[in-house]
Specification:
The protein is of the alpha+beta class. The protein has one domain: NADH Oxidase (3-Layer(aba) Sandwich), CATH 3.40.109.10. It has a four-stranded antiparallel β-sheet with strand order 1-2-4-3, sandwiched between helices. α2 packs across α7 and α5 packs antiparallel against α6. The radius of gyration is 21 Å and the shape is globular. Bound molecules: flavin mononucleotide (FMN). The site of flavin mononucleotide has 12 residues, from β3. Flavin mononucleotide binds next to β3.
Length: 248
């Protein structure tokens, strides 16, 4: 028997054709974004913003600068998923609710802020990489939440980022990482799920350090026993969470 959550994950596929008659309420859109924001972010930066394009007027502004993709006007909503350049100066503000809730001791805040500063300050490429990682995790959470709710989704890189940024008033530090349409899929028109590369081709078990230039790698076997369900929460319990001060 397969776990229902895993079943939801493994049965997802990108939606191409949506039922344009079916909309989502603003509360449903808010709920999708709330779920998206439970995704992890480096140092709990939460350096993202989600612009919901759901009115005919806003969709008409987006579609011509998004390769004229029909999903923009036919899906209930298209999110412009923005990542914000990683900035360590926001760490105290982002961690304040954890301190207030008694999750993190106040003295630990600099232990996150300082490594974040060392990691990002003066490194624009890293700041941008983090913006892209953050937005991608957020988008992924929305994709799987949508799937679990019976909705289709389309992640899209087919858009003109230089045009989208001014059209939707993105801030200087915001990167439009991807568009993500969500709505009700038209079941008969959409393709079935595409086959994947075999795990044995994409998984390597790291073993002994290889000599430079060697191409011999330990590959995963083609067949294996499925994972049993977890019996306990594999979170911080049983470990010293405070010792994770340098977590990124
Ligand atoms: C970063 C990214 C960008 C994508 N851009 C587009 C796009 O612009 N238009 C589109 O129709 N599909 C787009 N896709 C969907 C991919 O074509 C699709 O995920 C891939 O073919 C695998 O199919 P599946 O998602 O159904 O498993 C994108 C997917 C990703 C992850």
């Amino acid at each position: 028997m397969i776990n229902a959550i895993i079943e939801s994950i493994v049965s997802r596929s990108t939606t191409k054709y949506y039922d344009p008659a079916i909309t989502l309420t603003d509360d449903q859109i808010r709920e999708l974004v709330r779920i998206g924001t439970t995704a992890p972010t480096s140092f709990h930066l939460q350096n993202w913003r989600f612009i919901a394009v759901r009115t005919p007027e806003a969709k008409a502004r987006l579609r011509p600068i998004a390769w004229d993709q029909p999903a923009i006007t036919e899906a209930a909503v298209t999110f412009i998923i923005c990542g914000q350049l990683a900035d360590s100066s926001v760490v105290p503000e982002r961690l304040a609710p954890l301190v207030k809730a008694g999750i993190m001791p106040a003295k630990m805040v600099p232990e996150w802020e300082i490594p974040a500063r060392n990691l990002y300050m003066g490194y624009p490429q890293r700041q941008r990489d983090e913006a892209v990682r953050t937005a991608t995790f957020g988008a992924a959470a929305i994709i799987y939440a949508a799937r679990a709710l019976g909705l289709g989704s389309t992640p899209m890189i087919g858009f003109d980022a230089e045009a989208v940024a001014p059209e939707f008033a993105l801030a200087e530090d915001e990167v439009p990482v991807m568009l993500l349409s969500v709505g009700v899929a038209l079941p008969k028109k959409n393709w079935p799920q595409k086959p994947r590369r075999p795990v044995a081709d994409v998984l390597e078990f790291a073993g002994l350090r290889m000599a430079a230039g060697s191409t011999k790698r330990e590959r995963a076997p083609a067949e294996w026993t499925p994972l049993p369900p977890l019996e306990r929460d594999p979170g911080c319990d049983g470990r010293d969470c405070e010792s994770e001060a340098a977590e990124v």
